[in-house]
């Protein structure tokens, strides 16, 4: 639950926030030595510089409403049907657009897209970072996250999930990061919110990152490290029943925009469709 | 404190001018214009930089109650005092609502660096604050902003009123505006406290969705020299809570565009002037964002208005006329099911309006407490009235069998219906013909003390309508 701040970056850009955070740091934690990131060797990236469909060497699509996968509504009563049509996913002008639409399609009222690097890029540890602008409005639930690559043999949550960025469209000033594992999944997962004092996430790009090393996962937004987890945290949060499962397997990357369901609630009359999650880049460092 | 801030500000401006003058030989006179103070505070424990009268009420002649405004030293969200409004009952002899403005005591403020007006509010009971905003200065009222129907709680809540386009507010005098009565409390008086009124740069006011004509694409006939006032002008933002907040925004916040300036032009107050024949679409944007809604006019010529009534108002009970105050009417098109085909109803023609019916077979104007109980209004007591006046303008060629049967229904102890037949040869295509029909000539009408339905029927036998398209205007009972 420590809040730390790397003073190297962007001090000028958010001076009031910086001051506030500094005050907070000084008042609750005098340890200023921790840096936001330590891994700088780029090993994988998609800069989304070629117009058209996303690079098939980097990305797979998950299609449908989860029925085929045995989890209708993707386990959360989500309302969208994922497609790989350009209306729902394309690269244009240097960004990836994942667009949620309100339309009748295969018995669903919304369409969207979900991209994964499964079988294309999977690794254990590293720094995962994406620069993203999110949509707004009740029902939107975009995410940038990782899933363990052995869920076939160790069904979720045993295979693990690391949510680097999740956001609910009716809470435009907040994002959150989460880990899921046995004894700490779903509503019991270990999660933390990061809020902007004088800004929101749907009007500008922000960098969402996670640095993962043996026995530690750190989450950051822009230049602010706000969520740091170790096996001790899992132990504490689960009263000793949960295990740290993040030293045992490779994970793959997922980008998606869900619509409606248990977590965000369903869209209302104010929700604007279509809207896109705009991804400037995804980068992985070791 | 305020004076000191001003001095500091001026010192800063002077300093920056010195810096500027040292590297530029001439400073344009324009450069000093943007120096209105940007003081954000409107009220904390005291009025901040407002006129000496502090609260300037709307005119008591219009029902505004200037007595219910004050400050309260026992209630405050922060500090030691708040503004207190004791909202009167509608029949209060001092006035039935409270409304007015706070005005900057100087030449106005530069609010361009803020994105919202905020304040804290609570009330003695749950209710709605009818309207709150700013930009009214009782001079130009150029950049008015008002948020309607703000829910009030018995605990302090923060209210945000987004600025539609802050860049317009380089010199604003209207610091605060409010108006409320007891329409949300069924006429029961209550108390509102307001505190910490200030302009803020929240950084969370986003996703603008401007609208004109309430977002509708209105398409209608336009007429030469008959102006059209654009209404339903709003700006909507998504705010920190994730909810949308809509405010009414003055036309001057918008940039209007005419697709055909030879047919119609729009001024900065949203008034469309029709100057030529042809088709035109009026659209708008606000701060570069296109507004939902548009006005499309098809102009073929001027509008031929019905003769203006001249009878004195005290002798008239008006059902539909721009010349008189109309009585409450529940429907100008009865939409009687299942046999009525008639479409249309009241349509605006510039600042006035007429009734336009199409696909006429029969149609009623309903003003009673029987036909549609949920829309009940009082019928007309015509016991002392002698005539019905109506102006009729048929919008098609008159045919040999054309007829229009007028029927009045009296909802007395027993319903009686009186009929008066107008034949086609009394009507003229595209011309107004005025009828003054003695009520005695409505054959079959018994009592006249509860007349509540006027029916127009063009059928010449069952399922055989004659006249299909007509205009009506100036429908009123009177006594000679």
UniProtKB/TrEMBL annotation, chain A:
Highest taxon, organism lineage: Bacteria
Secretion signal span: none
InterPro entries, per the entry: Beta-glucanase-like (IPR000757), ConA-like_dom_sf (IPR013320), Glycosyl_Hydrlase_16 (IPR050546)
Residue span(s) of domain GH16: 48-286
Residues annotated as transmembrane: none
Pfam families (alphabetical): Glyco_hydro_16
Protein family membership: Belongs to the glycosyl hydrolase 16 family.
Designated name of the protein: GH16 domain-containing protein
Organism: Psychroflexus lacisalsi
UniProtKB/TrEMBL annotation, chain B:
Listed PROSITE patterns: PROKAR_LIPOPROTEIN
Gene3D superfamilies reported for this sequence: 2.60.40.1080, Galactose-binding lectin
Residues covered by the BIG2 domain: 231-286
Transmembrane region(s): none
Protein origin, superkingdom: Bacteria
Pfam families documented for this protein: Big_2
Protein name as catalogued: BIG2 domain-containing protein
Taxonomy of the source species: Bacteria, Pseudomonadati, Bacteroidota, Flavobacteriia, Flavobacteriales
């Amino acid at each position: 639950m420590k809040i730390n701040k790397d003073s190297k970056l962007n001090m000028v850009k958010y001076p009031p926030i910086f001051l506030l955070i500094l005050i907070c740091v000084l008042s609750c934690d005098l340890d200023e030595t921790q840096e936001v990131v330590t891994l700088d060797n780029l090993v994988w990236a998609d800069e989304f510089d070629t117009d058209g469909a996303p690079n098939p060497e980097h990305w797979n699509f998950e299609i449908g409403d989860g029925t085929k996968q045995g989890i209708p509504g993707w386990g959360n009563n989500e309302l969208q049907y994922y497609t790989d049509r350009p209306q729902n996913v394309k690269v244009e002008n240097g960004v990836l657009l994942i667009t949620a639409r309100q339309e009748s399609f295969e018995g669903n009222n919304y369409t969207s897209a979900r991209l994964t690097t499964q079988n294309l890029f999977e690794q254990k540890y590293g720094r995962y970072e994406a620069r993203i602008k999110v949509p707004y409005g009740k029902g939107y639930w975009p995410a940038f996250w990782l899933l363990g690559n052995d869920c076939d043999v160790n069904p979720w949550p045993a295979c693990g999930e690391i949510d680097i960025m999740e956001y609910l469209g009716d809470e435009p000033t907040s994002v959150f990061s989460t880990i899921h594992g046995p004894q700490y999944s779903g509503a019991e997962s270990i999660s933390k919110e990061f809020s902007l004092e004088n800004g929101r996430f749907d009007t500008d790009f922000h960098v969402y990152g996670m640095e993962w090393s043996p026995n530690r996962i750190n989450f950051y937004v822009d230049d602010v490290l706000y969520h740091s987890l170790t096996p001790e945290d899992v132990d504490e949060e689960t009263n000793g029943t949960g295990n740290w499962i993040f030293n045992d397997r490779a994970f793959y990357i997922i980008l998606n925009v869900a619509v409606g369901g248990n977590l965000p609630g369903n869209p209302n009359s104010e929700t604007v469709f279509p809207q896109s999650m705009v991804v400037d880049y995804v980068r992985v460092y070791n | 404190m305020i004076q000191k801030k001003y001095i500091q500000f001026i010192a800063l401006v002077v300093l920056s001018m010195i810096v500027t003058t040292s590297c530029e030989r001439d400073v344009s006179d324009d450069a000093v214009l943007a120096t209105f103070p940007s003081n954000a505070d409107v009220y904390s424990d005291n009025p901040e930089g407002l006129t000496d009268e502090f609260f300037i009420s709307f005119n008591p002649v219009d029902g505004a109650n200037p007595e219910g405004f004050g400050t309260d030293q026992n209630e405050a969200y922060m500090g030691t005092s708040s503004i207190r409004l004791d909202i009167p009952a509608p029949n209060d002899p001092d006035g039935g609502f409270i409304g007015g403005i706070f005005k900057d005591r100087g030449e106005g403020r530069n609010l361009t660096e803020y994105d919202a007006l905020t304040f804290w509010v609570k009330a003695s009971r749950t209710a709605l604050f009818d309207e709150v905003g700013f930009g009214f200065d009782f001079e130009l009222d150029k950049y008015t902003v008002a948020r309607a129907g703000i829910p009030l709680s018995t605990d302090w809540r923060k209210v945000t009123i987004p600025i539609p386009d802050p860049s317009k507010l380089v010199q604003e005098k209207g610091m605060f505006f409010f108006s409320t009565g007891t329409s949300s409390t069924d006429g029961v008086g209550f108390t509102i406290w307001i505190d910490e009124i200030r302009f803020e740069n929240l950084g969370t006011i986003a996703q603008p969705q401007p609208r004109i004509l309430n977002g509708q694409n209105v398409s209608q006939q336009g007429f030469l020299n008959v102006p059209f006032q654009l209404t339903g002008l709003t700006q909507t933002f998504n705010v920190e809570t994730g909810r949308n907040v809509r405010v009414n925004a003055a036309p001057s916040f918008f940039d209007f565009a005419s697709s055909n300036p030879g047919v119609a032009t729009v001024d900065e107050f949203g008034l469309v002037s029709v100057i030529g024949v042809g088709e035109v679409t009026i659209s708008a944007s606000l701060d570069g964002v296109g507004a939902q809604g548009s006005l499309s006019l098809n102009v073929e010529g001027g509008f031929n208005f019905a003769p203006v009534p001249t009878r004195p108002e005290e002798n008239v009970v008006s059902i539909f006329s721009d010349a008189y105050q109309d009585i409450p009417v529940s429907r100008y098109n009865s939409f009687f099911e299942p046999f009525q085909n008639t479409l249309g109803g009241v349509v605006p023609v510039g600042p006035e309006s007429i009734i336009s019916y199409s696909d006429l077979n029969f149609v009623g104007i309903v003003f009673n407490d029987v036909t549609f109980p949920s829309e009940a209004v009082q019928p007309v007591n015509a016991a002392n009235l002698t005539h019905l006046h109506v102006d009729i303008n048929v919008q098609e060629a008159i045919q040999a069998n054309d007829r229009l049967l007028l029927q009045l229904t009296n909802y007395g102890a027993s319903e009686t219906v009186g009929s008066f037949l107008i034949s086609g040869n009394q009507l003229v295509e595209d011309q107004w013909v005025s009828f003054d029909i003695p009520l005695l000539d409505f054959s079959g009408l018994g009592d006249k003390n509860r007349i509540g339905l006027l029916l127009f029927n063009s059928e010449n036998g069952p399922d055989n309508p004659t006249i299909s398209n007509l205009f009506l205007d100036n429908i009123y009972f009177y006594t000679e």
